[in-house]
Amino acid sequence: MEGMAGQKSSLGWAVNIAAFLLVLLWTIPTLGLFVSSFRDRDQIAQSGWWQSFSGSEQTGFVRSGTEGALQDGVWVIEGSVTADGEQLVAWGTSAREPGAHAPGDTVEIDEGIDITVADDGSYRMVSDTQFDMRRGERIFVTTSSPPSFTTDNYSRVLSATGLGRAFMNTMTVTIPATVIPIMIAAFAAYALAWMQFPGRALLTAAVVGLLVVPLQVALIPLLRLHNEMGIGKGYLGIWLAHTGFGLPLAVYLLRNYMVGLPREIIESARVDGATDFQIFRRIILPLSFPALASFAIFQFLWVWNDLLVATVFLGNTREQLVMTGLLRELMGSRGGEWEILATSAFISIAVPLAVFFAMQKYLVRGLLAGSVKGG
């Protein structure tokens, strides 16, 4: 019978499909970013990353020479319409039909003037009389380039001046800004979950309400408060800012998890004479590790990829830049260097990806906190 304990749900296939689609939606952009980071600017502008494995076709034109040489009684102009590594697909003499002729065809482009474009891209213009042209003849070509990848983008980004300092700045900001909110939120969550005091419900509602407040509205007032207190711009200021912005989610997540812990264990500890601090340190913290790790992932990813808070509370000098700030400068003022954008983005997410994959099992357990309560 369906719905009984131990019976497999009939909607299991839907859950599997949904999980597969979520993984696919997350993986495909990451793969595209990785592939684009090994392509140059022209390749990115001309074709999508999914076309990079099969080569790409380009259409353009080249001009022939104007000076002919006498060979075997005829005037000849020779040259090439392809670059190294390109393969000629088609060619033409009119902009309306740039691919009208196949490689090896001979076409009369003017009275007494014939042109032949060979498979290797070399062309030969032949005339019975000496050539009289001020500008060369336009030859439209469609070429195919084989798949090409380069590591020059990574060399340029990794060798950028100040990258090592920016990496250390980011680590200096991220690690304390992840640990401090966890330490404070763990105490607050335990108090809201298991301690009885007046106003507990109002505090819980206030925490939930703070989740929907955008941090942008607090940036300037908080910076003014820091300046008035003498903190100014620096590591202490940005640690406090990230702590304040991350505490509502941390308290909410940890409180939901701690509420679902077995009540019998805590009551037994109290009967044995354990204080609230002993219960928190010896029972609650070890059992709440999945929720703590879950929030640590969220906070680490947020702080590592942050640019706005770092710009406001840390500064924009070369010695103060974090990774996101330095990589933004590498892209230029107009942000048109797409190859640097892709490479920089992939380098910047390397550490968060490692953290995510190392702690993803705790993330899933933490997200399920409070969904099923013990009897």
Secondary structural class: alpha+beta
Order of helices and strands: HHEEEEEEEEHHHHHHHHHHHH
Q: What's the CATH C level of the largest domain?
A: Mainly Alpha
In order across it, which strands form the biggest sheet? 2-3-7-6-5
Provide an overview of this structure.
The chain has 375 residues and is of the alpha+beta class. It folds into three domains: 11-53; 56-145, no CATH class; 154-367, MetI-like (MetI-like fold, Orthogonal Bundle), CATH 1.10.3720. Helices cover 53% and strands 13% of the residues. The chain has helices at residues 12-36, 41-46, 152-158, 163-194, 200-210, 216-229, 235-259, 263-271, 276-287, 289-304, 308-313, 323-330, 338-348, 350-367, and strands at 56-63, 69-71, 74-80, 87-92, 106-110, 113-117, 122-127, 138-145. A five-stranded antiparallel sheet has the order 2-3-7-6-5, with no helix packed on it. It has a three-stranded antiparallel sheet with strand order 1-8-4, with no helix packed on it. α10 (289-304) runs antiparallel to α14. The protein starts with 11 loop residues before the first helix and ends in an 8-residue tail after the last helix. The relative contact order is 0.11. Mean pLDDT is 82; it is low at 369-375.
In short:
With 375 residues, this protein is of the alpha+beta class. The protein contains 14 helices and eight strands.
Give the topology.
Blueprint: H1 12-36, H2 41-46, E1 56-63, E2 69-71, E3 74-80, E4 87-92, E5 106-110, E6 113-117, E7 122-127, E8 138-145, H3 152-158, H4 163-194, H5 200-210, H6 216-229, H7 235-259, H8 263-271, H9 276-287, H10 289-304, H11 308-313, H12 323-330, H13 338-348, H14 350-367
Antiparallel strand pairs: 1-8, 2-3, 3-7, 4-8, 5-6, 6-7
